[in-house]
Structures are given as C-alpha cells and as structure tokens.
Amino acid sequence: MAATTFTFSKLRWAFVVCGLVWAALQTYIIHSFGFLWYTAVVDGGVSAILLAAACWLINNNLRYYQPGKGSYINILIWCGALAAICMAGSRWILPFINPDAIYSIFVGQSLIIRLFTNFLAIGWMAMISMIWYGQIDQKENEKRKAEAEKLARDAELYNLRQQLQPHFLFNSLNSINALIGFKPDEARKMIHQLSDFLRGTLRKDDQQQVTLTEELAHLNLYLDIEKVRFGHRLKTEISCDDNCGTAILPAMMLQPLVENAIKFGLYDTTEEVTVSIRSEMDGNYLQIMVQNPYDSQTSRPRQGTGFGLRGVQRRLYLLFARNDLMETHANDNIFTTIIKIPQL
After folding, report:
1. How far is residue 290's CA from residue 256's CA, in Å, rounded to a whole number?
2. Given a cut of 60, is residue 47 above it in pLDDT?
3. Annotated domain spans of the chain
4. Is the pLDDT of residue 301 over 60?
5. Is 115 in contact with 87 (CB distance < 8 Å)?
6. 300: closest CA among 335, 327, 270?
7. Which position among 7, 51, 108, 260 has the lowest Cβ density within 10 Å, counted as fewest Cβ atoms?
8. For residues 30 and 40, is the Cβ–Cβ distance under 8 A?
9. The pTM is what?
10. Number of H helices, E strands in the chain
11. Where is pLDDT greater, at 296 or 326?
C-alpha cells in the first residue's frame, strides 16, 4: 500500500511539472504575438488550469477503470469532448478577464488550434494513464498470483509432511506396544525417544532451512527409535566431510530417505543390514547419498521408490523448481539415493 501511494505521489508531481511547463510555453507563445506579459500570463494560466482539470478528470477515471480492447473509441470520444470543453472555457473566460478587442479576436481565431492542442495533450494524458495504471494492475495481479501459488505450494508441502508423519508414528506405536509386555524398559526408552523426535519435528517448518549438523542430530533421534524396533539387525554408517556441517538444507529432508532405505533393506530379510549415509560438497551443492542393500526379487526398487522418495522429489521441486535434484540407482543389490541441495 505504501509503495502504491508513493507511485501515485510521483505521478501527481509529474503532472504538476508538466502543467507548469505547458503554461510557461503557452505564455511565451502568446507574448511572441505581441501581447503584454500580463495578457500572456493570464492566457497561459487559464488555459493550463482548464487543461489540468480535464487531464485530472481523465486520469482519475482511468485509475479505476481500464478500458478493454473494444472500448478505446470511448476514450477518444472523451478526449475530444474534454478538449472541446477546454476550448469553450477559453473562449468565454479569457475575453471576460481581458476585454481588449484585438485579444478577443485573437482568441476567436485560435480556437481550432487550442482545440487540437488540448486534444493532443489530453490524449497523451490518457495514453500515459492507461499504460501507468495498466502496469500497476499487472504488478498487483502478478503479486496476487505469486501469493496464491505460494499458499498452494505451502499447502502441498504441509500435506506431504502430514502423510509422512502418521506412517512412522503408527510403526513406532506398534513397536512400543510389542515391547511393553516383555521389555518394558525398552518400551519406556522408545517412548522418550519418540517424544523427543516429535517435539523436534513440531518445531520445524516445512520450508525452514537447517544446517546439516542439525538435520543429522534430528535424524539420529529417528534412527535410535528404529534401532529399538529392529535391534541388532539395523546398523548405520554416517560420514560427513568437514566442510559439510554448516551447509543448509530443508528441515526433515533426510528422514524419508532413510525410512525408505530401512523399508527396502530390512523388511524382506532377517539378516543384519547396514544403511550408510554420506554427505559431501559438490561445487555449490550439498550432495547426500543414502545406500542400503536390497533383494532384487522382492523389493524391486527400479519400479517404485515408494511415497517417501516421491514426496522428497516433489518437495525439492516445490522448493527449488527443479526436477534434477534427486536420482536413484540400483546396482549389485545396493540401492542408492542421491539428492543435491543448492547452496543459495
């Protein structure tokens, strides 16, 4: 609102300057015909005031009404009518102020010229107003569109996150329920870990940027819960280059990747499985690689990566407007997921 008011203020001052220039120019022209400076100043002032009123009227109308493509003829008619009114005003007002016979004849003979000059001035005013306010409307429409897109994007990000949370929560509660009977201490420990994890999750916004160190600390809470669920079967290897700790990434980006790795790595086997997470800087990108073993006969990672990876890829697109920030590979019974986070 403040920016719009400032814009209108600049436009008004531009009108005032143009009006003074117009009055000075017409005063000089009238004086060049041999009339006294008083007569010339009165003629230029009155003509400028009438023209300014007509320009203000057409500008004020165009401020609130932008004509369509088929309505431009109406603007020309309005310009012609206002020019005629200005000419008539000059015809009656100027001889009344200065009743000199020679000057009155001059005014009568110059009416056609006054009509065309007024029409041109009012026409220019109308054209400038249409362009000016058209640009303002376009900027406001683009702003509203951007805000609407942002709201839609935020809603989709929130929806993606909400779909991830219940899946993990249900699994954790089922595991706690299974542990209560024969391992109450483990169940109590898992409840505390789940509480810490959810508390940290609720504090994070979908678009919040966190450092890799903070993200890994939160990921370890998730892994502690999963290790209670799977016991000795789940092993993790986390390696981070020294220059990666301060790199930023969207909060809660790694959990779906690791959850997917655990799903494909442990659900179809009773053996010990190692999930490895490695991060490094690749130019201006933070590159994170998650690997897990898989059974090509049951997991079939080539055909589907599950909601977790689809959600991550969609989230990366919504945040960075790019579809090339995640890739997956399946070679030698090792499934690899790589994401790249631009460091802006």
Report:
1. 11
2. yes
3. 2-145, 184-342
4. no
5. yes
6. 335
7. 108
8. yes
9. 0.56
10. 9, 7
11. 326
Q: Pairing between strand 234-240 and 273-282?
A: parallel
Alpha-carbon distance of 188 to 179, in angstroms, equals: 9
pLDDT, position 59: 80
- Residue 257, helix vs strand vs coil: helix
State pLDDT tens for residues 54-77.
Answer: 888 888 888 777 776 666 788 888
Structure tokens, 68: 């369509």
DSSP helix/strand/coil, 286: strand
Rg from Cα positions in the chain: 37
The mean pLDDT value of the chain amounts to 80
Tokens of 211: 């450092």
How far apart, in whole angstroms, are the C-alpha atoms of residue 67 and residue 171? 61
117/100 Cα distance (integer angstroms): 24
Tokens of 175: 């595991």
pLDDT attached to residue 278: 94
Quote the CA–CA distance of 109 and 111 in Å, as a whole number: 6
pLDDT of 303 strictly over 50: no
| Residue 101: Cβ within 10 Å count | 8
Contact present, 224 and 191 (Cβ < 8 Å): no
Return the CATH superfamily for domain 184-342: Histidine kinase-like ATPase, C-terminal domain (3.30.565.10)
Question: Within 13 Å of residue 195, how many CA atoms lie on the same side as its CB?
Answer: 6
What's the pLDDT band for 267 if we cut at 50, 70, 90? low
In this structure, what token pair is assigned to residue 145? Answer: 């569109």
CB 294 within 8 Å of CB 264? yes
Cα separation, 28 vs 34, whole angstroms: 10
